[in-house]
Specification:
Elements (H helix, E strand, L loop, with lengths): L7 E15 L14 E14 L2 E14 L2 E17 L3 H30 L12 H12 L10
Antiparallel strand pairs: 1-4, 2-3, 3-4
């Protein structure tokens, strides 16, 4: 195997692609002392940009509710541009579905925590995520329907 055939994985850029915050019941919601129920959703997607360069976007959605009232809703799309070359096709998808989100998650976690505290709420610290387990779960769910394996 020559040097040109060695697998390459590098981070070209990490950035916030989209960020939104909604506090629909302000200012009244700040007067309530009830602890909110917090839901966290994760989604990742990958797009080829050409010649071994890919954009991977990890979207984190955090919703806090006090009963039926939404305290806040945050959606952060943390993105990265990655160079991935000389990786066998069957290993490319796991790299984009596991390795890239693992790199992006700490950045998304910090962005979400920061924007929530700037909105006047206690920061939400997202628990670590096992992206390999999520990927395997999606594989198992996709198997019965078809041979396709979704990244999302």
């Amino acid at each position: 195997m020559s040097e040109n055939d060695q697998p390459v994985f590098s981070i070209e850029k990490i950035y916030v692609k989209d960020l939104s915050l909604e506090v629909p019941n302000a200012p009244q919601i700040f007067l309530d002392r009830e602890q909110p129920a917090v839901e966290v959703g994760l989604q990742s997607e990958a797009n080829g940009l050409g010649d071994g360069v890919f954009e991977v976007v990890l979207t984190v959605t955090v919703t806090a509710k006090q009963g039926e009232k939404t305290q806040f809703l945050v959606e952060a799309a943390q993105a990265g541009i990655f160079q991935i070359r000389n990786v066998p096709d069957e290993e490319l998808e796991p790299v984009m579905a596991i390795a890239c989100p693992n790199i992006l998650f700490p950045y998304a976690r910090e962005t979400v925590s920061d924007i929530i505290s700037r909105a006047g709420f206690q920061p939400v610290l997202l628990a670590p995520v096992n992206f390999e387990a999520l990927y395997r779960q999606r594989l198992e769910q996709a198997q019965p329907q078809s041979g396709e394996i979704p990244i999302q």
